[in-house]
Amino acid sequence: LQNDSWGKQYSHALFKAMSHMLCIGYGQQAPEGMTDVWLTMLSMIVGATCYAMFIGHATALIQSLDSSRRQYQEKYKQVEQYMSFHKLPGDTRQRIHEYYEHRYQGKMFDEENILGELSEPLKEEIINFNCRNLVANMPLFANADPNFVTAMLTKLRFEVFQPGDFIIREGTVGKKMYFIQHGVVSILTKGNKETKLSDGSYFGEICLLTRGRRTASVRADTYCRLYSLAVDNFNEVLEEYPMMRRAFETVAMDRLDRIGEEEPPRHSTAAPVPAPRGLQNPSA
């Protein structure tokens, strides 16, 4: 090729470069003529393009089969970039990672948007099914009016707390009450007495009824999967079902009495009433 024209030398050099770059063979005998060289390079380009398109479509198909996991991965990449940008310490990053793993379990859904597009009966059916374990383990719901249970469940919001997190701090203004789906929490009072609550229990209703401040602190001992109920939603539901308000008030007064055994008596705006069977929660 040393004595050939510049164009022929360039064509053969390009042919060799493309052969090595694309890793596509050209048979037992290399093309010799210029026409053969350019036709072979054209076939290499077409073959490589078809291969790339096949791989791209296959990858997109695989990703579409688990779009919720892909959304989780994309979301967590943003979280990692956020942590790097703010130079968060390693232990904090680890807690954030563990929180996301327990909260979303590798999949992310826009549940609020999905349920919002459904009809009200279908939405209620799904919520009742998703919270079936909570209802089954909670005496408050076991013998209650099914309409009350549905009204309550539709107002709940799912939350996750890590071991050592203070869910409630004594003396603060209460804006939520909590139902324990899974996990163990400790009720802490000024007398340093701890009361354990686990699956099927609830707490935080006292200040929602008395409109006062928190009478005790609540700390998560394990990873806790809870459902929270905001005070406005709490009052809205109980206005429709006044008999259930009495059940909440009875348990709240019992808990206040237990706290009063260690501290000076605290007065509540809730009037004591007989407690329905199955509603005597042993927690404080």
TrEMBL record:
Start and end residues of each Cyclic nucleotide-binding domain: 140-246
Keywords: Membrane, Transmembrane, Transmembrane helix
GO molecular function, one term: voltage-gated potassium channel activity
Taxonomic lineage of the native organism: Eukaryota, Metazoa, Chordata, Craniata, Vertebrata
A single GO BP: regulation of membrane depolarization
Protein name from the UniProt record: HCN4 protein
Keyword Methyltransferase: no
Membrane-traversing stretches: 37-62
Organism of this sequence: Psilopogon haemacephalus
GO cellular component terms listed in the entry, alphabetical order: axon; dendrite; HCN channel complex
PROSITE patterns assigned: CNMP_BINDING_1, CNMP_BINDING_3
Stretch list, region Disordered: 260-284
Keyword Cytoplasm recorded: no
SMART domains in the record: cNMP
InterPro entries assigned: cNMP-bd_CS, cNMP-bd_dom, cNMP-bd_dom_sf, K/Na_HCN_channel, RmlC-like_jellyroll
